[in-house]
Amino acid sequence: MNEKRVAIVTGSSSGIGFEISLMLARNGLTTYATMRDLHKSSMLTSIADKEKIPLRCVQLDVTDDMSVKQAIETIVNESHNIDILINNAGYGLSGALEDLLIDEIKLQFDTNFFGLIRATQAVLPIMRNHGSGIIVNISSGLGRFGIATSSAYASSKFAVEGLTESMSYELEPFGIKTILVEPGIIKTNFIKAAVLAQKSKDPNSPYFQFMNNMDEGMKKLIENSESPEYVARVVLDAINDSNPKLRYLAGKDVEQIMEIKNKMSDEDFHNMIKNMSS
Ligand SMILES: NC(=O)c1ccc[n+]([C@@H]2O[C@H](COP(=O)([O-])OP(=O)(O)OC[C@H]3O[C@@H](n4cnc5c(N)ncnc54)[C@H](OP(=O)(O)O)[C@@H]3O)[C@@H](O)[C@H]2O)c1
């Protein structure tokens, strides 16, 4: 078990984290599929038992310092090393900026940004002592460009992008690689699990119609979206690359939009997104 690479995935109860956990374990990595509520582990556990793949579920809530500490201790006691951390746990907060409460934004950042930092800081001493490791941060297309009603989510993912770029310079000398994976729209529980800001529920909100338009647009985009397995494959290919890139797009939609963005001025790109969302 120890000569196999050991991977930890956060937010494995559903969607992208669920599929990454399975993909890694099916490819022989000793995989710790972590989740905040272990009652949601039965599906993963039963697939792992049936397929006899090296996957184990461990409780880890990225917003809880003690939970992160205990999970990492449990894993290190068992496996003596951590080779790969996939920071995947996250959710969306939607609402126009004026309608967002500071506490709603703080909760968004506590999961998507500070949660990722908690898990990363807990594994870094282990990877640094070992002189190797890979940290994969699941960002988003919305870590590269903003859209209306997603300011809190997009800014949490922009923060993940800046953090990852900066830490990559610090960690490379210790043999630790950092990778950003930027999915487009992916068919998961993400939309159902998204939190709608309290004030956005009020039909008197000046942004109520805007919210409805964005909702309708999103429903159409989801119809043609990629599966979470697509993202899991991108992650597997990235961690198996001996010289991985800093950024990987995951989804035809985000690949197309970034290709266009890279050829346009900021002003032209801004106008294009504005026309798409009106
Ligand atoms: N789906 C998309 O279109 C899309 C696009 C770009 C980026 N992403 C990113 O991909 C990642 C995974 O999202 P998904 O699409 O797979 O959505 P999902 O199906 O809703 O999965 C989100 C996962 O994060 C977990 N989570 C939330 N808060 C947590 C916490 N405090 N501690 C530990 N786990 C927590 C959820 O656990 P519970 O089951 O307990 O809630 C769930 O396992 C997120 O970072 C998201 O921002 C998604």
Textual characterization of the structure:
InterPro entries: NAD(P)-bd_dom_sf, Sc_DH/Rdtase_CS, SDR_fam, SDR_oxidoreductase. It is an enzyme of class 1 (oxidoreductase). GO terms for molecular function: cyclopentanol dehydrogenase activity. It is a single chain. The chain is α/β, with parallel strands linked by helices. It has one domain (6-277): NAD(P)-binding Rossmann-like Domain (Rossmann fold). It has 10 helices and 9 strands. It has helices at residues 15-26, 42-51, 65-79, 102-130, 151-171, 190-193, 208-223, 228-240, 252-263, 266-277, and strands at residues 6-9, 30-35, 55-59, 84-87, 93-94, 133-138, 176-183, 195-196, 247-250. The strands form 2 sheets. A 7-stranded parallel β-sheet has the order 3-2-1-4-6-7-9, sandwiched between helices. A two-stranded parallel ribbon has the order 5-8. The chain is globular, with a radius of gyration of 19 Å. The protein binds NADP nicotinamide-adenine-dinucleotide phosphate. NADP nicotinamide-adenine-dinucleotide phosphate is lined by residues 10-11, 13-17, 35-37, 40, 61-63, 88-91, 111, 115, 138, 140, 183, 185-186, 188-190, 193, 228.
